[in-house]
Amino acid sequence: MFRKRNLVMDLWRRVDLGDVEALISRGLWSRAMSTHSKSALPVADNADMDDKQTGMFSLAGELASLVEESSHVDDTKPRRRSRMELKRSLELRLKKRVKEQYTDGKFSDLLKKVIARPETLRDAYDCIRLNSNVSIAERNGTVAFDSIAEELSSGVFDVTSNTFSLAARDKTKEVLVLPSVALKVVQEAIRIVLEVVFSPHFSKISHSCRSGRGRASALKYISNNMSHSDWCFFLSLEKKVDVSVFENLLSVMEEKIEDSGLSILLRSMFEARVLNLEFGGFPKGHGLPQEGVLSRVLMNIYLDRFDHEFYRISMRHEALGLDSNTDEDKPRSKLRSWFRRQAGEQDLKSIPEKDIALRVYCCRFMDEIFFSVSGPEKAAVDIRSEAIGFLRNSLHLDITDETDPSPCEATSGLRVLGTLVRKNVRESPAGKAVHKLKEKVRLFALQKEEAWTLGTVRIGKKWLGHGLKKVKESEIK
Bridge-partner residues for 108, per DSSP? Predict the structure, then answer.
């Protein structure tokens, strides 16, 4: 009995589990086992052969059935999707509904045909629960999606009745207006719709609250560009959104969305002060307000005008500048002349002081903007003044932190996004060898100086002792 078991176990160790599963799937297990058993065992006694084959087939059959059952269970058991996969699937469904409304270069009737639908509001509610790390397996019946959708489509949805306010206890008596669950669901649906419409058109210098483009990507972009830049400066915006800024925001949105109902709904939210859209930071110790659901995407939509203006500024300084070695007798570039006619810069006659390849880099994270310039200081000052002028005159925003262009190699560095950014120059191997040799020479000179000092002190002590000895001898005599 033990001999049979040892023989079967030895045979089973020679068989690979992957080969067994392949044979089971093809239905060739019995044939392979019979062939293997015939080739492995000597034909000596028919009775012993039958007993051995019977033992092998019984044990092998049981093991094969276990492998088959485990593979069958793994195939039929559905894989549990992660929280991010569920959220992406919900947003993908909304994205398809939004793209169906694209006609003649604009999105139309988004409020009635996309937002004011019970399935859209239900998907937005599930996104809110996923962001709060709440399971969406069980449906919650507290939110009446059908009635909300009917009110939105008919235009009778009351924003003010779906808000509640909190007043501060200090002397300021500031009031913070927060949305109810129903209004928050509507805002989440509007947020997803606006991101579908505007996110593909956002600039690459924008790293704020976008998929795959957050604080880490912004710092990486800054470090890569700062390594080959000469000057850098930082601008921080501050503005409590007023009527003029909000109307400019709606005009920007109307360039891609043709829906008066959506504009009216957003305007009613602004009048109810439930958007909580504000540029700039807040004093330490005062806390942070409850940020609105729509504040991030609305801020990106509004500041996208600056992102495109930055490209115009960089093009004018990089592509329209005259080279220092350009003579009047040489033929002018037709492409450069065309650029000048388009930008209205035909009267540019100034020649740079140095022949430097000018490059301008920018990174915007929400309302914080970082600039780095590879070129002369004068170009950095001009770019800074033009950027501040556009932000103040065209976007009607205030600048709180107007840092002057400073060298990137400055020891103090520049604080961006709560991180101290500083350029470290990498030395060449020859420079490292020279510095290492200088350090060795300095240490050798220091050791020699210490040895000389110790020797001098020792000699002085000996002379002093010898002198005192002579004085005592003379006194004795």
Answer: 258
Region 248-276: mean pLDDT is 89
CA dist., res. 66 & res. 114, Å (int): 51
- The predicted-structure confidence for 337-359, as pLDDT tens digits, reads as follows 655 555 554 444 444 444 457 88
How far, in Å, CA of 147 to CA of 246, rounded?
Answer: 29
Could you tell me which residues come within 8 angstroms of residue 238 by beta carbon, excluding any fewer than 6 positions away?
Answer: 279, 280, 281, 367, 397, 398, 399, 400
Phi/psi-derived region of residue 276, left when phi > 0, alpha when psi is between -120 and 50, beta in every other case: left
Distance of CA 41 to the CA centre of its chain: 65
| 330 is a domain residue | no
Q: Which residues pair with 327 in a beta bridge?
A: none
Flag whether pLDDT at 422 surpasses 50. Answer: yes
Report the number of distinct structural domains present in the chain.
Answer: 2
Q: Which of 41, 44, 56 is nearest to 9 (CA)?
A: 56
Is the pLDDT higher at 227 or at 369?
A: 369
**Residue 398 domain-assigned (yes or no):** no
Its domain, for residue 16, covers 2-76
From the list 237, 225, 206, the residue with the least C-alpha distance to 388 is: 237
Tokens representing 188 are 């989440």
**pLDDT confidence of 16, banded at 50, 70, 90?**
low
Mean pLDDT of the region 281-297: 62
- In angstroms, the CA 311 to CA 362 distance is 9
Domain membership flag for residue 58: yes
Largest Cα span, the chain: 131
* Distance separating alpha carbons of residues 351 and 171, to the nearest angstrom: 57
**Contact status, residue 114 vs residue 96, Cβ threshold 8 Å:** no
Q: Is 34 helix (H, G, I), strand (E, B) or coil?
A: helix
pLDDT given at position 138: 66
Neighbour-count burial for 98-109, b at 16+ CB within 10 Å, e otherwise: beebeeeeebeb
> Which of 56, 76, 96 finishes a domain?
76
CB proximity list for 354: less than 8 A, separation 6 or greater: 324, 376
Q: What one-letter code names the amino acid at 40?
A: A
Report the DSSP pairing between strands 231-240 and 368-374: antiparallel
Final residue in a domain of this structure, among 76, 102, 128: 76
What is the mean pLDDT of the segment spanning 290-300?
Answer: 80
